[in-house]
Amino acid sequence: MYYKASQLSYLDLEIMIIDKNQISLKTLFLFTNNVDYCAGLLLKI
């Protein structure tokens, strides 16, 4: 499934990433701290 980073809360995204174990927490940190840059990117989960 694909989600725009701006459509998910930090907690929702963190839970999905931990469950899928496909993206590091460092990547999560970068997404949540660069919302303007990442708003147009699609995040594969």
From TrEMBL:
It comes from the Bacteria. The lineage of its organism: Bacteria, Pseudomonadati, Pseudomonadota, Gammaproteobacteria, Moraxellales. This is Uncharacterized protein.
